[in-house]
Amino acid sequence: MLRQFERVYGPPYYSFTYGKVQFVALDSVYREGDNYHGELDERQLAFIENDLAHVPDDDLAIFAMHIPLVEFSYREALFDIVKDRSHLLMDAAHRNSFGKRKRG
Question: What contacts 87, CB < 8 A, 6 or more positions away?
Answer without folding.
Answer: 57, 58, 59, 60, 61
